[in-house]
Design goal:
Layout: E1 2-3, E2 11-13, E3 20-21, E4 32-35, E5 39-45, E6 51-57, H1 60-76, E7 78-79, H2 80-87, H3 90-112, H4 117-124, H5 128-135, H6 143-152, H7 159-172, E8 173-175, H8 176-179, H9 184-196, E9 200-205, H10 216-230, H11 236-246, E10 256-262, H12 264-267, H13 273-286, E11 292-297, E12 311-314, E13 318-322, E14 326-330, H14 333-347, H15 353-368, H16 390-398, E15 408-416, E16 420-427, E17 435-438, E18 441-444, E19 450-456
Parallel strand pairs: 9-10, 10-11
Antiparallel strand pairs: 1-2, 1-4, 2-3, 3-7, 4-5, 5-6, 8-14, 9-12, 12-13, 13-14, 15-16, 16-19, 17-18
Helix pairs in contact: 3-7, 4-5, 6-7, 9-11, 10-11, 13-15
Length: about 475
């Protein structure tokens, strides 16, 4: 178990149970761990909260004392979900509150009709647990459920208002199965309506290419994944066509688009090589549009914010967050400010214009090169260059590699199904900033050994000049 009394929320976490929040207690002002109630780990921090290390204590009396404090905290704790709901934290909390408010209204209708939960369930043909879950906000009713509920309670005049509350809830949190139950085309058309009412669209995508920039082939891969994952209606052709029609907004006057992607989707194996090559080429082209600002966050930069998930910003009035389970639409001012701040911070680390196109073309060269290794398996696109022959690579494994006097500790090759060869060169550098020449690959080292992986095709000139 892990105890955190020094943190502002006084969280305690235990395996197999949700987080809990301890009420103010007479417990030590430091964090600690208990390991099987046999060892104690005291956590030490600087005044700024930077971890200094953990002190392991096996003294039985200290372990017993801290076990008692743990049990006391556990006794007074509340479930973390209840704590979040009570504190009004986060978008999920607001959605949960809206669901609970709808359930409360339905419960009042039932009570006004002098029905208990079992009677209502029998009248509409539901299991009794469904009535309880809806009233407690643990299950979202459908429009049909609300209509049946209101009719059973002789409150048909309340139906429009209740359905309006449900639809407002669904715009905040809409699970994918519900959104896609009629196929992917309607989803794209709904997004087009949001696009049409927005002047400035910002999007951050750490793992996918934004839909407004996708080629038909890449879009087909993404929608096929969606259909397979959620088991929804297969209308991929119609969905792809609708997504392509949305892209007309890129060429409309008075519209502005700011897209941020990381280098990852350029190299992830989420589409065949030829599809990725076409998609990257499309990004190079669209980056020259006056209405589009395309930023690429490269590998290796220090990020001011962790790219936990992607999101869309529509005119600073709606934030659209997509998770595996659902889509959330956030409209609270504090939520909008938070996501705009995250976007702006990530944008400072992105490459734009010619610099972005250099990253894109480097990824395109890697993807377009024939190889049995999928994109992303190589360390750095700058280390991949012209082809060389398997014969010359074998020579490299035997003869010293000419590197302008810089010693190479090893140089080996690995045949790859007879068509490709992987050369691994480990270079040790005795000083900083010395160039290393290995098959026209020139890089700077910072005084530490570096592993270079070079993938080449056969039938070409000698690899080292």
């Amino acid at each position: 178990m892990e105890i955190h009394p020094r943190r502002a929320t006084n969280h305690c976490r235990a395996p197999g149970r949700p987080g809990i929040r301890a009420r103010p207690l007479k417990i030590p002002a430091y964090d600690y761990w208990l390991f099987d109630s046999r060892r104690l780990g005291l956590m030490h921090f600087t005044d700024d909260g930077v971890p200094l290390g953990t002190e392991i204590i096996e003294d039985p009396s200290a372990v017993v004392q801290h076990s008692y404090l743990r049990d006391t905290a556990w006794h007074h704790a509340v479930p973390y979900a209840d704590y979040v709901a009570g504190a009004g934290l986060g978008p999920v909390t607001k959605i949960h509150e809206a669901r609970e408010a709808l359930g409360h209204r339905l419960r009042e209708l039932r009570r006004d009709a002098s029905l208990n939960g079992k009677q209502l369930a029998e009248a509409v043909g539901w299991p009794p647990s469904k009535v309880s879950k809806i009233e407690l906000g643990k299950q979202t009713p459908s429009e049909g459920d609300i209509q049946a509920w209101a009719a059973c309670c002789q409150a048909g005049d309340q139906t429009p208002s209740l359905i309006a509350a449900l639809r407002n809830l669904e715009t905040q949190y809409a699970d994918w199965r519900r959104q896609l139950r009629d196929g992917t085309k309607l989803r794209q058309q709904a997004l087009a309506e949001v696009d049409a009412t927005t002047r400035v669209i910002r999007a951050f995508k750490p793992a996918w290419i934004p839909g407004l920039l996708q080629t038909p082939e890449y879009a087909r891969c993404r929608l096929a994944e969606v259909v397979d994952l959620y088991g929804v209606t297969n209308d991929i052709d119609a969905g792809v066509q609708a997504r392509m029609e949305r892209q007309a907004a890129l060429y409309q006057q008075g519209r502005q688009f700011h897209f941020l992607i990381t280098e990852a989707p350029l190299r992830y194996g989420t589409a065949p090589r030829d599809v990725m090559a076409g998609q990257i080429d499309r990004l190079v082209s669209v980056s020259t549009l006056k209405s589009v600002r395309l930023g690429v966050v490269p590998f290796g930069v220090r990020l001011p914010v962790s790219p936990i998930h992607g999101f869309w910003l529509f005119d600073d009035r709606i934030v659209m967050v997509e998770t595996f389970a659902a889509e959330m639409r956030l409209t609270q001012p504090e939520e909008l400010r938070l996501y705009r701040n995250v976007f702006d911070r990530l944008a400072t680390m992105a490459r734009y214009g010619p610099d972005a196109r250099r990253l894109l073309t480097a990824a395109l060269d890697e993807v377009a090169a024939p190889s049995s290794n999928p994109p992303g398996n190589r360390r750095n696109s700058a280390q991949f260059h012209q082809p060389c022959s398997a014969t010359s690579l074998r020579s490299l494994a035997v003869h010293p590699l000419r590197t302008r006097g810089i010693p190479m500790t090893s140089c080996t090759y690995c045949p790859d199904d007879g068509a490709n060869v992987c050369v691994r060169v480990v270079a040790s550098n005795s000083g900083p900033d010395h160039p290393v020449l290995a098959h026209r690959a020139c890089a700077e080292q910072r005084g530490i050994p570096v592993l270079y992986e070079l993938l080449h095709r056969p039938a070409a000139p000698e690899c080292v000049r």
